[in-house]
Amino acid sequence: MNLLDRSRTVAPPGFNRWLVPPAALAVHLSIGQVYAFSVFKNPLIERFGSSHTSIAVIFSIAIVMLGLSAAFGGKWMERNGPRKAMVLSAVFWVSGFLVAALGVSLEQLWVVYLGYGFLGGIGLGIGYISPVSTLIKWFPDRPGLATGLAIMGFGGGAMVASPLTAGLLGAYADNPADAIVPTLLTLSAIYAVLMACGAIVIRVPAPGWKPEGWTPQPKKNSLQSHADVRVGNAVRTPQFYLLWIVLFTNVTAGIGILEQASPMIQDFFPAVTAATAAGFVGLLSLANMGGRFVWSTTSDVLGRKRMYVIYLGVGALLYGGLAAIGGQAVALFVVLTFFIVSFYGGGFATIPAYLKDLFGTFEVGAIHGRLLTAWSAAGIAGPLIVNRIADARAAQGVEGAALYLPSLLVMTGVLVIGFVANILVRAVNPRHHEPTEAVPVESESIQPQSTEPELAAATKES
After folding, report:
1. Beta bridge partners of 10
2. pLDDT tens for residues 77-92?
3. Which among 41, 83, 87, 235 has most CB atoms closer than 10 A?
4. Euclidean distance between CA atoms 240 and 367, whole angstroms
5. pTM value surpassing 0.90
6. How far is residue 254 from each of residues 108, 411, 414, measured CA to CA in Å?
7. CA–CA dist 444, 203 (Å, integer)
8. Cβ atoms within 10 A of the Cβ of 136, count?
9. Helices (H) and strands (E) in the chain, counts
C-alpha cells in the first residue's frame, strides 16, 4: 500500500508535466458520468413508478455528498497526495454503482439512494478535488489553463457516458427499465479500470520545481495576492462567503438544466425522441467540458472577476431568453442551453484560480474543498426548483414548455444575486496572510516560483 503514499508520487527529474492532465482526465471523465444521470431518469421512473422529484433525489444526494466529502477531504488530500485520493474515489464510485444495481434489482429505491447517491457521491467529491491543486502547482504560469484541464473531464464525462448509457440500455433489453442493472454493472467495470490508470500515472512536483525558462510576472490586478492564507483563516474572510454565493448561484442555475435535460427537451418539443434527447445531453456535456477549458483559459487574460461578470450577467439574460422564446424552435432552445451550460462549466473551472488569486497556493486544495459545499447546496436547490415546479404544474394539467417557465424565471433571479456578490469581491485583508516563515518550504504547495520577492528570498534562506 505504500505505492499510494505521497512520497512515492513525487516526480523524478525530467518528468513531463503534460502527462498529468491525462491522469486527471481519466478520473474526471469517469466521475463526470453523474451529468448523464438524466438518461437513467425516465427508466428509473418507470421501474419504480415514482415521480420526477423522488428520482431526482438520487442526483441531489450525490451532489450533496460531493460537496461534503470535498470539504472534509481537502486537507486529507493535501497531506496524502492525489494518488491515494484517486484510489479512494474509485473505491467509493464503483461501489456506488454496484449497490445501486442491487437496489434496482431488489426494487428498493432507498438502496439506490445509498449506492449512487451516498457512496457514489463520496467518490465524486474525493475524485473531483484530487488533481486540482496538483495541476495548479504543475502550471503556475497558467493557472486558469491548469484548472480548466483538471476539471474539463468532469464536464465532458456525460459526452461519453450519455450515448454509452443509452446504447447499453438499448442493447441489454427492449425496455430500458429492464436494462438498468446490467448497464450499471458494465459502467462500474469500465470506470474501475479508467480510474486505476489515472492513479498510476499521477505525480506531484518535487519541492523547488518550476517550469523551465519561466520567470514570475508581477501581479496583473488588485485581487491577486502572492501571500498565502490557511484554510482556517480563509473561511473567516468575507471573500470566501461571497465566492460561496457566486458558486452556489452559478451551479444552481446550470444544474437545474443538466439534471432535467433529457425530459425537458422532450417536454418542450414532443417530436424529440428519447435517442435524440440522449444526444442533446451529450451536446450539453460538450458545452460543459468546452466551457471549462475555453472560459477558464480566457480568465488568464481577462481576470477571474470579469469572467464571472460574463457567467452570471450574460447567463441571466440567456435564462430570460429561454423562458421568453426558447420554445419557438429546437435550434434556438439548444443554442441558449448550450451557452448557459458552458458558463456553468466555466464557473467550476475558474473558481480554483480565483481562490488561488485571493488566498495563494499553500492550502488552495483544502479551501477549494470547503467552497464546494456551495455545490452541495446547489445540488439540492437546482433540481428541487425545477422538479417541484414541474410536478406541481403537471398536477394542474399543464403540459409542454409551460411546465418549466416559472423555474426558468426563478433561475434568472438567482443569477442576478450571484452577479451582485461577484461585484462585491475585493482583495483579502493582509491581516489574514500567513507570515513567510510560517509556510513550510518542504510542502509542495509553495514553490520558489512565487512572484513575491520576500517569499522567494525566505525560501532560499531556509
Report:
1. 204
2. 888 889 999 999 999 9
3. 83
4. 9
5. no
6. 30, 9, 11
7. 11
8. 24
9. 19, 0
Q: 148: which 3 cell numbers? A: 480548466
The count of other CB atoms within 10 Å of the CB of residue 430 is: 9
Cα separation, 22 vs 14, in Å, equals 18
Residue type (1 letter), 177: A
Could you give the CA distance from residue 383 to residue 389 in angstroms, rounded to a whole number? 10
Residue 379 in contact with residue 173, Cβ under 8 Å?
no
CA–CA distance, 380 with 252 (Å, rounded to integer): 8
With a cut of 90, say whether residue 243 has pLDDT above it. Answer: yes
Alpha carbon distances (Å) from 336 to 265, 299, 365, 396? 12, 22, 33, 28
- CA distance linking residue 120 with residue 105, whole number of Å: 18
Task: Determine the pLDDT at residue 226.
Answer: 66
In single-letter form, the type of residue at position 58 comes to: I
Other CB atoms within a 10 A radius of the CB of residue 151 amount to: 30
Cα separation, 63 vs 57, whole angstroms: 10
Q: Do the Cβ atoms of 434 and 362 come closer than 8 Å?
A: yes
Give CA–CA dist 58/370, Å, rounded.
22
CA distance 184 to 167: 12
- The C-alpha atoms of residue 263 and residue 283 are separated, in whole angstroms, by 15
Closest CA to 443 of 415, 422, 421, 462: 462
Decide which of 225 and 368 is more confident: 368
What pLDDT, on a 0 to 100 scale, did the predictor assign at position 91?
97
Q: How far is CA 144 from CA 64, 151, 170, 247, 312, in A?
A: 26, 11, 40, 16, 18
Closest of 308, 416, 418 to residue 354, by C-alpha: 308
Radius of gyration of the chain, Cα coordinates, nearest whole angstrom: 22
CA atoms within 13 A on the CB side of 19: 14
Which of the 8 DSSP states describes residue 439? S
The C-alpha atoms of residue 234 and residue 361 are separated, in whole angstroms, by: 12
| Closest listed residue to residue 210, CA positions, set 444, 25, 461 | 444
How many CA within 13 A on the CB side of residue 231?
17
Q: How far apart are the first and last CA of the chain?
A: 33
Cα(340)–Cα(318) distance, rounded to whole angstroms?
7
User: 204 - beta bridge partners?
Assistant: 10
- How would residue 43 be classed by pLDDT, with cut points 50, 70 and 90? very high
State the Cα–Cα distance between residues 80 and 55, nearest whole angstrom. 36
Determine which helix (DSSP H) or strand (DSSP E) holds 22, and give its type and residue range.
helix 20-31
Per-residue pLDDT for 102 more than 70?
Answer: yes
Please report which confidence band the pLDDT of residue 109 belongs to, taking 50, 70 and 90 as the band edges: very high
d(C-alpha 253, C-alpha 342), whole Å: 12
